[in-house]
Write a structure and sequence with these properties.
The protein has 154 residues and is mainly β. The chain is built from one helix and twelve strands; from the N terminus they run αββββββββββββ. Strands 1, 2, 3, 5, 6, 8, 9 and 12 form an eight-stranded mixed beta sheet that branches. The relative contact order is 0.26.
């Protein structure tokens, strides 16, 4: 059983380390609770489909806060999946580990890169479908930003 768990974690970590493809950057807009526009530059947004027989996918993107205020990413979700978590990689005793991050504060003009080996989105219980997956980012000021993802098939 231990061996199987180890094997699964190796597969998951490999998934998070896949090479990322670039896509054209675009500005996505959300609305704050007071109705103000909230602008986010997003590029390279992609979803790497699960390995055969697995249901865990990983999503990568670059996110730039184009607003005058800091914002905190507090929740992420996607249709066709059970749950999405923000993760980060860390080295523990020379081993690469992933850990869940509850939220990320993003300063004005700051860019956070979600990529292999760093922050990334783990998509659990992902069901492959013909519909383009959309990652829904929710920020602390009640802004919701919907990010269409380019699907990368393994
Ligand atoms: Cu992860």
């Amino acid at each position: 059983m231990k061996k199987i768990l180890l094997l699964i974690s190796v597969v998951l970590i490999n998934l998070c380390f896949s090479v990322s493809a670039e896509s054209v950057g675009k500005v996505l807009e959300g609305k704050t609770s007071e109705g103000r526009a909230s602008e986010w530059q997003v590029s390279g947004a992609q979803l790497r489909e699960p390995m055969p027989g697995q249901t865990t996918a990983v999503a990568f993107l670059k996110l730039t806060n184009q607003n005058k205020e800091a914002a905190t990413l507090i929740s992420v979700s996607m249709e066709n999946s059970r749950a999405v978590e923000i993760h980060e990689h860390s080295h523990v005793n020379g081993m690469m580990r992933m850990r869940r991050v509850p939220s990320i504060e993003i300063a004005p003009a700051e860019t956070v890169v979600f990529q292999s080996g760093g922050y990334h989105f783990m998509v659990f219980g992902y069901v492959i479908s013909e519909v383009q997956p959309v990652l829904v980012l929710e920020f602390s000021d009640e802004v919701t930003v919907k990010v269409p993802l380019v699907v990368i098939k393994l």
